[in-house]
Write a structure and sequence with these properties.
The protein contains no helices and eleven strands. The protein is mostly beta strands. The strands form two sheets. Strands 2, 4, 5, 6, 9, 10 and 11 form a seven-stranded mixed β-sheet that branches. A four-stranded antiparallel β-sheet has the order 1-3-8-7, with no helix packed on it.
Amino acid sequence: QVQLVESGGGLVQAGGSLRLSCAASGRTFSSYAMGWFRQAPGKEREFVAAISWSGSNTYYADSVKGRFTISRDNAKNTVTLQMISLKPEDTAVYYCAAELFGSGTRHALEQYDYWGQGTQVTVSS
């Protein structure tokens, strides 16, 4: 069982940066691939980034590639999403998710086992 809580969201100007964190509880955190998803108003939830359970592989949506970086610290049971050069279209609720023994290569929502409740990111022009 894994419980996930996101934090770090807020209001930022275009071109600015934010760091999102996801704190996980449970002794098996290191066995899960971790992903970040986002959902903008009126839109479907979409994949943003993922990292394998080993931390050796990362994956990014084309829309954020080169601007966002996902990382994990298994000793602290956390996963982060460092976001730079933010754009208004990045505005969304950001969710972290966990996939048991995942490689990070599967990006469909239904393939993840646990979800946080989200943190709001708003990027102003």
